[in-house]
Amino acid sequence: MSSSTATSAAVPTGSTSLSLQRSRRTDWLVFLVVMATFALVPPLLGGFALYIATIVAIFAIAALGLQIMVGLAGQLSLGHAAFLGVGAYTSVLLQKLYGVPFLAAVAIATLASALVGLLMGQLVRLSGIYFKIATFGFGIIVYQLLSNWSSVTGGHTGLIGIPPIRILGTVFRDRLSMFIIAMIYLAVTYALLLRLTHGRAGRAFRALGQNEAAAQSIGIPAASYKMAVIAIGCGAAGLAGTLLPHVYNFLNPEEFTWLQSLVLLIIITVGGLGSLPGAIVGAVVLVVVPEYLRAFQEYKMLAYGVLLIVSMIFMPRGIAGIVQGLVTRIRGRHAPAETPS
Amino acid sequence: MTNTILATEKLTRSFGGLVAVDDVTFAVERGSIHGLIGPNGAGKTTAFNLISGLIAPSSGRVLFDGRDITSLPAHARVATGICRTFQTPQLFEDMTALETVMTGCHVKGRIGIAGGMFKFAAKSREEAAIESKSMGLLAEIGLADHADVQARNLSYGQRRSLEIARALAAEPSVILFDEVTAGLNPVETDFIANLIRRLRDTGRTIVLVEHDMRFVMGLSDRVTVLNFGRLLAEGTPAEILSNEQVIEAYLGRPKEKVRG
């Protein structure tokens, strides 16, 4: 309670909260730690680790968007993988059929995914459980479309001959450049969404997720903010999707089934609902662990189910919650020695 | 009549066969404390929900500052200047007290979704202003040293105060308090009464839906009484307290002989 006495000379009394500023600074510190780990560890391990880290980054980007949509604003989507698919197919088809440059194709595909998300939001103007069920149905429709519109998407056999990433005349196709591009995607998405949560719109999203009636009672237009957060969540998934075909070097609809939607939800739950770094850590767990347990492939879904249940029982706030608890405990122990930075 | 800030005209709302609010016309004077009372089921809360826009009327109008706001959705009414609290505090449980009040500043802020991501100087200016204003409101409501406590960890009385601070953050000209003293102890009730007087003295208009007769009669400049959804009486607290119809509605018709 004596926290404000040390620094209050600089600011008018009672006008700022040290812990609000400290928590924002901590968020950026975590950002730096997460991105530094990403930038250092996979290149040191090299080879296959770079490939896995690229896929982790892709799922992390999609999970970050889903985290804002589900973890903060409470708009549960059960068909989110479909938007990865919309991004992936839109981007590849634009490049392959129309020769659109990579960056432009990525931008259009991201926008297209956000628009398809808005379309879903408008079509199913439902609330609560009905919206959730409708998103599930929407995911299946997109999957069916990708599987059966063979003349364009290649159907179940998928698309091969994915054009290499070409930016300003330079072609990037080796693992390291793929990894670097994915890192840039991730850093930009993470930073923008973190900035979003540290402001008026972020508070409105959280208000919406925690008590919609109360949010409306203080003037937050719930319907518009719902649409906005759906567009953000679906746009992030679309952006993530644009990288996938270049990494796999082929594209088929099996990457975008409802099981993948479930995996995305498990990622944000295990990582910690509402936490952006949690979404990234969740992606690490759910992508890396299965890669090293390929021998037990047939038990994968069973393991996911057990993981989800165990994490909800023993760590309802996910890995992020556990880490936060530990940090608070350590800080508490060293409280007298603590000095403002 | 120009001094009327809030008015209802023949406001009616029925739920199936039940007419919860029936042809109610009343006016609230600018800068006054206006009590809305009535026995259980009289339609007070329904009238509140109609005024704040949470539900739509079957017929009739709601006027704010001479303007028909009947078709405005609830969130848009806040921007025009009407804000409410709930019978049971409706908070954002995972937010700290400070974040809660900062969220209440929503209608006064300008930085949107794109601005939140891409603006730097303007955003940090607005955030600093919102934070400072919110800390001020927390101090006013007596929660300054609880700024960093999550809403879920506050006591019942503190939750009520926090909800009021959040409503004040929208800088409403009319504040609707729905049973603001429910569940509070006498000390807390006195604190709220003083706060409401202070708000009135700074030019705001207060509408109270209340059960606590001592509280509402002691505070209100004028009182409207509803019974079975209809307007029963309106007047100063003294007039209402001596109104036979009101006494009858609350206590029942006196019998000639109680026993015999």
Helix-strand string of chain A: HHHHHHEEHHHHHHHH
Unreliable residue runs of chain B: none
Give the radius of gyration of chain A: 21 Å
| Helix-strand topology string of chain B | EEEHEEHEHHHHEHEHEEHH
CATH topology of chain A: ABC transporter involved in vitamin B12 uptake, BtuC
Computed over alpha carbons, the radius of gyration of chain B is 20 Å
Count of individual beta strands of chain A = 2
Structural class of chain B: alpha/beta
Q: What would you call the shape of chain B?
A: globular
Task: Explain what this protein looks like in three dimensions.
The complex is a heterodimer of chains A (341) and B (260). Chain A has 341 residues and is an all-alpha fold. Chain A has a single domain (3-253), classed as ABC transporter involved in vitamin B12 uptake, BtuC (Orthogonal Bundle). Chain A is 72% helix and 2% strand. Chain A is built from 14 helices and two strands. Chain A has helices spanning 18-45, 48-72, 81-98, 102-123, 129-148, 150-153, 175-197, 200-210, 212-217, 222-248, 258-271, 276-292, 300-314, 318-333, and strands at 165-167, 170-172. Chain A has a two-stranded antiparallel sheet with strand order 1-2. With 260 residues, chain B is an alpha/beta fold. Chain B has helices at 44-52, 74-80, 97-104, 113-118, 121-140, 156-169, 186-201, 213-219, 237-241, 244-251; strands at residues 4-15, 18-29, 33-37, 59-64, 67-68, 82-84, 174-178, 205-209, 222-227, 230-235. In chain B, strand 1 and strand 2 (18-29) form a beta hairpin.
Strand and helix map with partners:
The complex is a heterodimer of chains A (341) and B (260).
Chain A: H1 18-45, H2 48-72, H3 81-98, H4 102-123, H5 129-148, H6 150-153, E1 165-167, E2 170-172, H7 175-197, H8 200-210, H9 212-217, H10 222-248, H11 258-271, H12 276-292, H13 300-314, H14 318-333
Helix pairs in contact in A: 1-2, 1-7, 2-7, 2-8, 2-10, 2-11, 2-12, 3-4, 3-5, 3-10, 4-10, 7-10, 8-10, 11-12, 11-13, 11-14, 12-14
Chain B: E1 4-15, E2 18-29, E3 33-37, H1 44-52, E4 59-64, E5 67-68, H2 74-80, E6 82-84, H3 97-104, H4 113-118, H5 121-140, H6 156-169, E7 174-178, H7 186-201, E8 205-209, H8 213-219, E9 222-227, E10 230-235, H9 237-241, H10 244-251
Parallel strand pairs in B: 3-8, 3-9, 6-7, 7-8
Antiparallel strand pairs in B: 1-2, 1-4, 4-5, 9-10
Helix pairs in contact in B: 3-5, 3-6, 5-6
